[in-house]
Design goal:
Order of helices and strands: EEHEHEEHEEEHHH
Shape: elongated
Strand order of the largest sheet: 2-1-3
Helix content: 40-55%
Structural class: alpha+beta
Largest sheet: 3 strands, antiparallel
Number of helices: 6
Radius of gyration: 32 Å
């Protein structure tokens, strides 16, 4: 389907561009959201009469978005969630969750503006883009942690999900084995010392 864009749409084009898109994308998103019109002869003429108003409205909305963006850009937010020892969440943090946090701080956003491709599923510090306007995007930081103390450590840049894995344990055991192999006299000395400590106890017999 060919449509006329009524605003800039990422990866498609600028306001006024006539582009071809999949029918489903047009019917389910572009047309109902007021982002485009079907590229019919009638709508092409209609767009020309709408263009001045659309451009004026776009500039106004862009200005409002830039004002919000100056305050929102770089802001930090904290989400507390239960998680496994390795940092995997029992659940996830969705765009809806992040939008709610941003709104609580007094910013006007909606879930669709949180440009998170997939929900957050791990403990840590995550950079999340927020699209306030087709031409205005800012980035916020979201610290996902199990408690407030952990959130502060994450904000300082600490890795709170470091755990010993089987490979590390195997490496340590190998190092101990190598030490015993290359320094047998050390091992023998330890054995002799242990035997000497046990000897007095074995020799102690009651007097008749």
């Amino acid at each position: 389907m060919e449509v006329i864009l009524l605003e800039r749409v990422a990866k498609l084009g600028q306001m006024g561009d006539v582009v071809r898109v999949k029918d489903g994308f047009a019917r389910n998103f572009l047309l109902p959201k007021g982002k485009a019109l079907r590229a019919t002869t009638e709508n092409r003429s209609r767009f020309e009469t709408m263009k001045v108003d659309l451009e004026a409205r776009n500039l106004e909305q862009k200005g409002e978005a830039e004002t919000i963006g100056q305050k929102l850009n770089g802001q930090s937010f904290t989400v507390l969630r239960q998680a496994a020892e390795g940092g995997q969440l029992y659940g996830s943090v969705s765009p809806r969750d992040i939008a709610a946090l941003v709104i609580e701080k007094g910013f006007t956003v909606n879930r669709a503006q949180i440009a998170l491709n997939t929900p957050i599923k791990t403990i840590g510090l995550h950079k999340v883009p927020v699209s306030l306007h087709p031409e205005v995007e800012v980035t916020i930081s979201v610290a996902v942690a199990r408690n407030a103390d952990e959130a502060e450590r994450i904000a300082r840049g600490e890795n709170v999900t470091v755990v010993r894995d089987e490979a590390e344990e195997a490496a340590e055991e190998a190092a101990m084995a190598a030490e015993a192999f290359f320094e047998p006299e050390v091992v023998e000395a330890r054995r002799s010392r242990d035997a000497a400590e046990e000897a007095p106890a074995a020799d102690a017999t009651p007097e008749k």
